[in-house]
Design brief:
- By secondary structure, the chain is mainly alpha-helical.
- Helices cover 60% and strands 7% of the residues.
- It has a two-stranded antiparallel ribbon.
- The longest helix has 35 residues.
């Protein structure tokens, strides 16, 4: 029983450390992503309720790197990025973000 408690604690410590490090990374990259995406949704161009979306979710070990973040509006975020076609949308978002990162790095 002690080993299980110990392993659980160690696992939680790693998760918390990873989460803290990723929060720092998100804080660094959030303004850059907003600027890169012109404060608009990368899917529809809208501006209402813009949020930063993780293309590969943090729960799936996705990080808050520039190539994993995209601006989405309230209309696209939940229904499209988390909807029935989420896999297809994820691929498209990766393509869009790669193009935008390349352009952003040139400037």
């Amino acid at each position: 029983m002690i080993a299980i408690i110990s392993n659980h604690w160690l696992g939680s410590g790693r998760v918390n450390k990873r989460k803290r490090e990723d929060e720092k990374l998100l804080k660094q990259n959030r303004p850059k992503v907003l600027e890169r995406d012109n404060y608009s949704c990368v899917l529809c161009g809208g501006h209402e309720g813009i949020s930063i979306h993780h293309i590969v979710f943090r729960s799936q070990l996705g990080k808050s790197t520039m190539d994993n973040l995209a601006c989405l509006c309230v209309h696209c975020h939940i229904p499209i990025a988390h909807g029935v076609f989420a896999k297809e949308v994820r691929k498209r978002l990766q393509e869009i973000v790669k193009e935008r990162n390349d352009e952003y790095e040139k400037n």
